[in-house]
Design goal:
heterodimer; A: alpha+beta; 16 helices; elongated; B: 463 residues; Amidase signature (AS) enzymes; eleven-stranded mixed β-sheet
Chain lengths: 474, 463
């Protein structure tokens, strides 16, 4: 896009909270079950039922708001958001509007140009709707998801590029995973992101807002926004006016398409939910929120760079996954060298995990075993080449590297007596070659080394072996 | 347990008495039509047979959920719905042994003052079948007044227990908001309504209230019950403008005041400055909440569905168009109107301010008096149709009852006198959780002036 325009992007992120049960009843909040099995009169909107607030969800909501540096509400309450939708049982959604759990926060995230700050408008709790499937001339409703606890995070339009948006979202995903409040999977629908974007001549402020929906990964959010940024710039270049509207990202066509215009927008007629009292958290509750805080991904990344001398890219890789980051730090504590650990985790270990289709959690390679493997290399008990074979065996035999080296006799031979005997034997068997080398044909040294490795079954420690051979050759 | 309930105990487990009751009910029902569904057996399974109230029948307004019984709300929309669960107030009575024998008629979703807005059936007043039993809990009032059950449950959103109790000559309690669980009450106006009790004696009203009251985890607006005691010495009586009440009702109101004086209470005339704003504020809030509460009825998961629809949106539209009656549609439309963005300050927010002012009025008032006596409705039971009072006049007439709902205060209808063959009641009001004060006054009054009985009322077979 030409640089005469400025872009403003704001996000509305929804996450499913890991609160065990639904937002307002005791039904299991779980995916993948038979349709309409996790339902009850409350989440089905039967006449006469009343909502009961899920306290765990309330706690998680406050935790996220706190992690996003929001002002936490001392008297939060729910409201009814009124609109008709076939899979929404009550035809109103219990949500928050005037007094959400948190407002006026911010979140930092890293970009190639450095750390940036995005303001958070508010964080509020609400319930999800069901799911409707259209099959031929039928429409089927599954209400397992109806009433699922949702947290919506609304940012200010502070993001400047589609690329930054993707990075922001990934950092946000990591944050919720680190906190254990949501699995943050966009492809499974446990995290959703709507984006609004406007562009305008530089210095002119916000332009006409377009809302984008239906992007089910951070990458598609970026692609959708890039498309939209271009489209809007083209329109303005041609002197056309933009319309305030909602558009859908079409993944198959790589483009956005109009869903509805401003005139068709709903009037949600919010009013306070009379069935639920105002929630006034006490100090015990705030202490609980505070005690549940964890080191957030960005802080951890920066600390890892500092503490373990990792580059930004290395730390980015390690901190991306909470388990990997914990694993890495555990291995360092056990004495593993941070750079070596990074090298192994990002290449050989990763390759093996991919090949075996395993996650690090599920693999037999614990942090202490990986550290053990690195120790075997650094103490020259095995070579780097052998180490890769040992790693293979760790995965197949599920035994520690030391055990494998011992059982399979894979340790290097560095005993000078053994090595000298081998050199003597090989030199005796190849007098011509020895002569040639002595005569200056250094190329033949490689041949002798090859023979020596064969003789020792590949286990001769190369450095002392070469030293002895050199001495013998004079 | 009181003498009346003692008399009813075991009726449903005694074959002879049960068939006598069946016969008695049948005779009355042909005249009054108070029940929409009746079954003397079905409810036995869910009642505790060793409870103190074992074998005692009761009726439940058909907007309160009873598992295994229909939950029509007097609407075509829910004509086929069988409730999969029971309201907390019902469960508590069942746990105490009482048995549901049927569901009583009402104005559709509780919207009305005559029970004529029921889409399913007409209910007549046991005192005069040409007249209404009142509403919206008209079926519950009529069946109690006729002696078909010792008590029935109703709901009171703006007077729906107290006004039919007055029309039928019985007691009707609307408890403090939050004192009894709303779980299982089909919501019409959530912030105003409470379950209520209709009975022929104060003792039964109180015994039933003691069973149903108290905090319920399923209703987070419910509160643990801490009685606001205190002896009643002074009773305020509301100053009524000339001509605001029908002559019969005015006479009855005056004689009630006189009777309370005879019982050695000090009576003082009081005014409520906010009284004139009560009806508009009440209807604004009630309709706003109703527009959301009734949104769930869309023909998809349960209830009325059209013969055919092209798509889900058309299904919802047709279900609502064909399933709701006119009064319900009117209230949904008005409720939607007052909640529109840009209009909330003018209607909804202003009504909430009036509501606060009303509460403040009462708070001040109850520093001067221990209880309050007020008329219930400007007329006695009126004729079916709109010849006596049209739909709008009926709404205006809710003035004296809906004020207790706006303030959340407890109020009790007590029978006062019979004027020209029709019973008229008055209501007593008290501060929050002051139900005991109401019972205290009512018991004293009852000793001298027990509930009158309509012709053909005959419980000889019970003893």
């Amino acid at each position: 896009m030409s640089n005469k325009y400025e872009t403003f992007i704001g996000l509305e992120i929804h996450i499913h909270l890991e609160a065990n049960t639904k937002m307002f009843c005791g039904c299991k909040a779980q995916y993948g079950d038979e349709p309409n099995t996790n339902i009850c009169p409350v989440c089905m909107g039967y006449p006469g039922v009343l909502p009961m607030v899920n306290e765990k969800a309330m706690e998680l909501g406050y935790k996220v708001a706190r992690a996003l540096n929001c002002k936490l509400s001392k008297n939060t309450f729910f409201e009814r958001k009124n609109y008709f939708y076939p899979d929404m049982p009550k035809n109103y959604q219990i949500s928050q509007f005037e007094e959400p759990v948190g407002v006026d926060g911010w979140m930092d995230f890293d970009t190639p140009e450095g750390t940036k700050k995005i303001r958070i408008h508010d964080v509020h709790l609400e319930e999800d709707a069901g799911k409707m499937i259209h099959a031929g001339d039928m429409s089927l409703c599954d209400y397992n998801r109806a009433g699922y606890p949702l947290l919506e995070i609304v940012t200010e339009p502070d993001i400047k590029t589609p690329e930054d948006t993707e990075l922001f979202l990934r950092n946000f995903q990591r944050m919720v995973r680190y906190m254990g409040v949501s699995d943050g999977n966009m492809d499974e629908g446990s995290m959703k992101c709507d984006a609004n974007i406007s562009i305008n001549l530089v210095g002119k402020g916000l332009g006409t807002k377009v809302e984008l929906k239906n992007m089910n990964s951070p990458r598609f959010v970026r692609k959708g926004l890039s498309y939209e940024e271009e489209r809007q710039a083209d329109m303005l270049d041609q002197g056309k006016a933009l319309t305030q509207e909602t558009r859908l990202w079409n993944e198959n066509r790589d483009q956005t398409e109009v869903m509805r215009t401003k005139e068709e927008a709903e009037d949600y007629r919010y009013f306070p939910e009379p069935d639920l009292p105002i929630f006034r958290p006490d100090q015990t509750f705030f202490d609980l929120v505070e005690s549940g805080l964890v080191e957030l991904p960005l802080t951890r990344k920066h600390r890892m760079m500092e503490e373990y001398k990792l580059s930004a890219d290395q730390a980015e890789y390690i901190h991306d996954d909470l388990y990997l980051a914990d694993y890495f730090e555990e291995a360092v504590k056990l004495g593993g060298d941070s750079v070596q650990l990074f090298a192994w985790l990002s290449s050989d270990v990763k390759k093996l995990l991919n090949r075996e289709n395993l996650s690090l959690q599920d693999s037999p390679l614990t942090a202490s075993w990986l550290t053990e493997l690195l120790e075997l290399i650094s103490s020259e008990a095995i070579s780097g080449k052998i180490a890769k074979k040992v790693l293979d065996f760790v995965f197949s035999d599920k035994k520690s590297p030391k055990t494998i080296v011992e059982e399979k006799g894979m340790s290097q031979v560095s005993d000078p007596a053994v090595l000298t005997a081998a050199v003597d034997k090989v030199m005796a068997a190849n007098p011509d070659v020895v002569e040639a080398i002595k005569g200056g044909d250094n190329k033949q040294r490689g041949f002798l080394m090859g023979q020596l490795m064969k003789e020792t079954g590949g286990k001769a420690a190369p450095v002392p072996l070469q030293k002895i051979l050199a001495e013998k050759l004079g | 347990m009181n003498k009346e309930l003692e008399l009813w105990k075991g009726v449903l487990s005694d074959g002879t008495k049960k068939s006598k009751l069946e016969k008695y009910i049948k005779g009355w029902e042909e005249k009054i039509g108070s029940f929409l569904e009746i079954d003397l057996n079905r409810g036995a399974y869910d009642s505790n047979e060793s409870g103190a109230l074992a074998g005692i029948p009761f009726g439940v307004k058909d907007n309160i959920a009873v598992k295994g019984f229909k939950l029509t709300c007097g609407s075509k929309m829910l004509q086929t719905l069988v409730s999969p669960y029971s309201a907390t107030v019902v469960s508590r009575l069942q746990q105490a042994g009482a048995q549901v024998i049927g569901k009583t008629n009402l104005d559709e979703f509780g919207m009305g003052s005559s029970t004529d807005n029921s889409a399913l059936q007409q209910t007549n007043n046991p005192w005069d079948t040409e007249r209404v039993a009142g509403g919206s809990s008209g079926g519950s009032a009529a069946c109690v007044a006729a002696g078909l059950v010792p008590f029935a449950l109703g709901t009171d959103t703006g007077g729906s227990v107290r006004q039919p109790a007055s029309f039928c000559g019985i007691y009707g309690l609307k408890p403090t908001y939050g004192a009894a669980s709303r779980y299982g009450l089909t919501a019409y106006a959530s912030s105003l309504e409470t379950p209520g009790i209709l009975a022929r004696t104060v003792a039964t009203t109180k015994d039933v209230f003691d069973i149903i009251k108290g905090e319920d985890e399923r209703d987070q607006s419910s509160l643990s019950y801490e009685a606001e005691g205190g002896q009643v010495k002074t009773i305020g009586y509301l100053k009524i403008e000339e001509g605001a009440l029908n002559a019969d009702v005015e006479a009855s109101y005056k004689s009630s005041i006189k009777r309370l004086e005879d019982l050695e209470y000090t009576l003082v005339e009081v005014e409520l400055p906010t009284m004139d704003y009560v009806v508009p504020a009440y209807y604004t809030i009630a309709m706003a909440e109703a527009s959301a509460n009734l949104a769930r009825f869309n023909g998809i998961r349960y209830g009325y569905a059209p013969f055919m629809a092209e798509n889900p949106n058309e299904l919802m539209k047709k279900s609502r168009h064909e399933g709701f009656g006119d009064e319900v549609k009117l209230r949904i439309l008005l409720g939607t109107y007052v909640l529109r963005s840009g209009f909330q300050d003018q209607f909804y927010v202003r009504s909430q301010k009036i509501r606060t002012a009303i509460r403040n009025d009462f708070e001040k008032l109850f520093t001067k008096v221990d209880s309050l006596v007020m008329p219930i409705f400007p007329t006695a039971a009126f004729h079916h149709g709109s010849s006596d009072l049209d739909s709008f006049q009926q709404k205006v007439a809710d003035k004296y009852t809906c004020v207790a709902n706006l303030a959340g205060l407890p109020a009790l209808t007590i029978p006062s006198s019979v004027e020209n063959g029709l019973p008229v009641g008055v209501q007593l009001m008290a501060p929050y959780f002051g139900e005991d004060r109401l019972f205290e006054i009512a018991v004293k009054a009852e000793e001298k002036y027990p509930a009158p009985q309509p012709e053909d009322f005959d419980l000889e077979w019970l003893s």
